[in-house]
Write a structure and sequence with these properties.
Blueprint (H helix, E strand, L loop, with lengths): L1 E7 L3 H13 L4 E4 L11 E3 L5 E3 L6 E3 L2 H8 L4 E2 L5 E5 L2 E5 L3 H8 L5 H11 L9 H26 L9 H4 L16 E5 L3 H8 L5 E4 L4 H4 L4 E7 L3 H4 L9 E11 L9 E3 L8 E4 L1 H4 L6 E9 L6 E2 L3 H14 L5 E3 L2 H4 L5 H16 L2
Parallel strand pairs: 1-2, 1-11, 2-10, 7-13, 11-17
Antiparallel strand pairs: 3-4, 5-9, 6-9, 7-8, 12-15, 12-16, 13-14, 14-15
Length: 364
């Protein structure tokens, strides 16, 4: 069977490109997905108690990219949700990321914004070179805050010392010299009013899009012909692990439902030092759903399982560069997304990357 375009993977990257092909180019496109649902890791569903959960951990849309926001807004209205996170440190809940409020609660102080700036400058460790995530934290907040908030959390999340991890990890966590306790300060923030899955379903409602679920693309690709393959899965799998299996960090998700309306005071509470899990999410505080019960999610990072996070170390980057050289030789395959490009993307960046690939590689 012939399709001009075949997309491997029904996450946001694959859905965005497929939607553009079907709507803009008016071409038929086949999506092949190994899971039993579309949406990738943003997939959400109602559990047996009737509570809307995020099956692969909490996802909050935020961006400064107006085009990406307008694009996704074609498929969903938004709840104007402003994400707030608390971190459990020394028996207290303090705002995360680090703000003036965080420092004051952490040290029982009453500093102004200017005074907090001076406070952090005094705490900061002077380093000749910033090579790792540990270096980033030490240079910004000093040893004590690094140990209280970052060190053990990072060890739990990645399973290795922060001194071995690329600077990109902790650099994603903002430090603000103001009282803004929102986790993100992007211009556009929100949650799809009817959930991410409903949004994704609208993205692929075009009759030009055909979807094959529960299917490993390698099982059927030999029976298909195509002009262009858009691949969003793990690149090491695409090349049959020619240069070895890439390392990923996975998560063991443990859901619990309680017969009460509220479990915690924030949508997400981080636990950097206590317990084996890294954080607890209470979904009703994300989705604004009204229900007499509430469902929470505890996340236990692990090495085995679904590949969620590309491993941010020098050795892994060097290993992937071997695959990148193979990718660069392809003439009718485009690689897009977190797994295919072995890099961390937020939701908006995935959509932006997919739109750029479409305009540059398919519609250029």
């Amino acid at each position: 069977m012939y399709y001009k375009y075949i997309v491997v993977g029904a996450g946001l990257a694959g859905l965005t490109i497929a939607e553009r092909i079907a709507s803009e180019l008016k071409e038929k496109v086949l999506i092949i997905e190994k899971r039993n649902h579309i949406g990738g890791n943003v997939y959400d569903s109602y559990n047996e108690d009737g509570i809307l959960i995020h099956n692969y951990g909490p996802h909050i849309f935020h961006t400064n990219d107006r085009e990406v926001y307008q694009y996704l807004s074609k498929f969903t209205p938004w709840n104007d949700f402003w994400h707030r996170v608390l971190t459990y440190v020394d028996g207290n809940l303090v705002p995360m990321p680090i703000t003036v409020e965080t420092i004051n609660k952490l040290y029982n102080l009453n500093l102004s914004c200017d005074e907090v700036e001076d406070f952090l400058k005094e705490k900061a460790v002077s380093l000749d070179e910033i090579k790792t995530s540990k270096d980033v934290a030490l240079s910004k907040v000093g040893l004590d805050i690094y140990e209280k908030i970052f060190e053990t959390y990072t060890r739990k999340q990645w399973g290795i010392d922060p001194g071995e991890i690329d600077t990109s990890v902790i650099s994603r966590i903002p430090i603000r010299l103001n009282r803004d306790t929102r986790y993100f300060n992007d211009r556009y923030q929100g949650m799809p009013k009817y959930g991410f899955t409903r949004m994704c379903e609208k993205m692929v409602s075009n009759p030009n899009i055909k979807i094959l679920l529960n299917t490993d693309y390698k099982e059927v690709i030999k029976d298909l012909t195509y002009d262009k393959l858009i691949y969003t899965g793990p690149t090491d799998y695409f090349y049959d692990y020619k240069y070895g299996k890439m390392e990923y960090r996975s998560i063991d998700f443990v859901f619990e439902t309680f017969n009460k309306e509220e479990y915690q005071s924030a949508p997400v509470v981080n636990y950097p030092n206590d317990y084996d899990f890294t954080r607890i999410t209470e979904f009703k505080k994300l989705t604004w759903q009204e229900h007499k019960n509430t469902t929470i999610l505890k996340e236990y990072p692990c090495s085995d399982g679904e590949p969620y996070y590309p491993f941010p170390t020098k050795d892994c980057k060097e290993q992937f560069s071997l695959y990148q050289a193979e990718m660069d030789k392809e003439t009718n395959v485009l690689f897009v997304g977190r797994l295919a490009e072995y890099r961390y993307y937020n939701m908006d960046a995935v959509v932006r990357r997919a739109l750029d690939i479409f305009h540059g590689g398919l519609n250029g």
